[in-house]
Amino acid sequence: xxxxxxxxxxxxxxxxxxxxxxxxxxxxxxxxxxxxxxxxxxxxxxxxxxxxxxxxxxxxxxxxxxxxxxxxxxxxxxxxxxxxxxxxxxxxxxxxxxxxxxxxxxxxxxx
Amino acid sequence: xxxxxxxxxxxxxxxxxxxxxxxxxxxxxxxxxxxxxxxxxxxxxxxxxxxxxxxxxxxxxxxxxxxxxxxxxxxxxxxxxxxxxxxxxxxxxxxxxxxxxxxxxxxxxxxxx
Lengths: 111, 113
What we know:
By secondary structure, chain A is mainly beta.
């Protein structure tokens, strides 16, 4: 089945700096890659997603890039703010209904 | 709209006891999911229901059963709880399949002693 690896497991950045989280996947048939953000004690929420026919997608300070050949995709957060502190999960589609999630990255933004 | 709701929020069981986790959504979504979240392991799919009347196994279905009671409700049952089932359980729903945003419930924190 699909295996999604996520790195790093923890990331500490200075406020205003950029944060990058990387994920790799194993199944070349995967074609949908969402990112979820989970604040402490809260539920996961979708922040951005990308489909395999697109190489990059941006939404304000957040961007996701996809390299299908290398089977990896990344989340980029620019100008980090304290409210960006959370756990971020990448995921890859297994089939029409299943997602395989990475283990998560705990991002801490230092003031 | 309440979105996705789950009951209970917390539960403590003894090994061998049974219980049912309830989930309901008011967004008229077709698909519903049950995940468990364990430290360092992300979210793992237990079961999903693509549409009313259908259920399928996910990544970690052993020890669990599900029922899609109607379009709104999707329950998860532990017949004989084990300490390995100590986890946070999330229900989610989406309009269609995995290519659509999944909306998560607030979670149920389950401890099995």
